[in-house]
Amino acid sequence: MNLELSPRAIREAERRDRWWRENRRGAPTLFQEELRGALAQIQREPESGRPYQAKSGREFYRVRTRRTLCYVYYEIRRKGIRVVALWSAVRPEPRL
To answer: Is residue 37 part of a domain?
Structure first.
């Protein structure tokens, strides 16, 4: 299934990857590796994520990376999957 990242998701991924590389010298590529795994899972099994209803009323799914604690928010569309945001699992929920 086709998978695309929104401009917001790309910015957030780049920012988190940069932070992880600068601050987690013992595992500088861990975020990138976990994100890659999460995206592969979403692409293979789109409905494997947990349903999530945003305050706006829109419905999404989300999966969480195990060690880097990042939620990947996405929606399933007719043309494929669109990742809309990446967000820390320890912060208040994002505005979607």
So the answer is: yes
